[in-house]
Amino acid sequence: MSRYPDQARVFLAVDCIVFGFDGKQLKILLVQRALEPEMGSWSLMGGFVFANENVEQAAARVLHTRTGLSNVYLEELSTFSEPGRDPVERTVSVAFFALIDINKYKKQITDDFHAEWFDINKHPKLIFDHKQMVAKAKARLRYKSAFHPILFELLPAKFTLPQLKSLYEEVYNIEMDNRNFSRKILSMNLLEKLNEKDKENSKRGAWYYKMNSKKYKANFHAVATIIPNPDIYYS
Amino acid sequence: MSRYPDQARVFLAVDCIVFGFDGKQLKILLVQRALEPEMGSWSLMGGFVFANENVEQAAARVLHTRTGLSNVYLEELSTFSEPGRDPVERTVSVAFFALIDINKYKKQITDDFHAEWFDINKHPKLIFDHKQMVAKAKARLRYKSAFHPILFELLPAKFTLPQLKSLYEEVYNIEMDNRNFSRKILSMNLLEKLNEKDKENSKRGAWYYKMNSKKYKANFHAVATIIPNPDIYYS
DNA sequence: CCAAAAGTGTTACCGCTACACCCATGG
DNA sequence: CCATGGGTGTAGCGGTAACACTTTTGG
């Protein structure tokens, strides 16, 4: 018997907006839903929260189970709780957004559902309110990455500045000056230059860098105006 | 019978961190809990989410019921979902923070519990994880108001720039230059000067201003660095 | 040697900070 | 007429944007 006899219980789920970057486009990872209602429709990665875990642990578990990845960038977005959002039972979902290196993602053998990357601007119809979740996640990504150096989470451990610049250009749909961009990023003192160049994309080659994760963690809340007028992107 | 037979349901609640400003100190509004467990202990304003409302509506309702206020600034903070946070039943709470004009608050006659303002840095022991909620709300308030002109929500409809400056000084525990502060705030073009001065706090008197709510809404996402180095306050 | 991308150096400008100074008025 | 808080003017500094120019190397 409940100790709160007058109150109703709800189902609690998490959904993850998983971002990836293929070098040209910003992508999201979608799956085909494995249970009714709407079985087979495209959906965000999600799942119910277990009795012994909090929502963040649930999101990390779902992500790990379905992508094989752990220690990914994961941030709570917001709660979606419209009474009718799930047509068959009242289910409240806490949405998280995740940033992963698209190359590290390997489809799990044990998966009994499809997962696929889609261009964020051109994805199939999604179940429930997942379209809203994606829109909100995109807005948050733009807002946050205008101030905080989080986008490198979408790149491999070693990456070049031109790669990072392309990523910013894709996220904000702008063109940036490569010369000023390099200086601005390097002036944050978070990157370490490696003794290796990427020669695939240019003749001269671009130096590889890696994030100094100690400094990154220490300065995680550092605010830098990487993008001018960030507000105009937060629609 | 549930359509998700293998899943457990949880209780869903909201809790509100209600900020106020008395001219000198930043305050939060606490109540004495009206139900078991921990009946009588100090707590944030909260309540269960009804079947016909989403969490934001629930937070607004709780606030309205217990303070008489509507149309207050209300923003989702995050979800608190540790399995054992409520010792008797699994209850997940979505925390919201609210900014209100402390003068508008009137204790409701119908209240069967105490509500009281406390200095944010010196409040009684709180139930469950409410202390964490308060800490997180304070951090978010600092972070957000460093970029967005939201703090005026804590002041009366007409206010002076010295009042607003005191508020910023209290929130960030810094001293600001009144001359530069005025210019910075006014350069956002969100305030309208009234034909009236506050003569209570100085001989010369300070002009009253009011927020132009049309411009405020239109520019809500405008980012201005009201506070230098905002990151150092986001602990 | 040319094209194309990476990266450096330099300049002009803008916005912010610091602070000298003026304003208004109650006592 | 002076003390006090409100407010304006302005000079200097630092960071950013713009862009001419150099470097590198495959074809």
TrEMBL record, chains A, B:
CDD domains xref list: NUDIX_NadM_like
Keywords for this protein: Hydrolase
Entry-linked Pfam families: NUDIX, WHD_NrtR
Highest taxon, organism lineage: Bacteria
GO molecular function term, any single one: hydrolase activity
Domain Nudix hydrolase span(s) in chain numbering: 9-140
Record bears the keyword Hydrolase: yes
Annotated InterPro entries: NUDIX_hydrolase-like_dom_sf (IPR015797), NUDIX_hydrolase_dom (IPR000086), WH-like_DNA-bd_sf (IPR036388), WH_DNA-bd_sf (IPR036390), WHD_NrtR (IPR054105)
Family annotation (PANTHER family): ADP-RIBOSE PYROPHOSPHATASE, SLR1690 PROTEIN
Official protein name in the record: NUDIX hydrolase
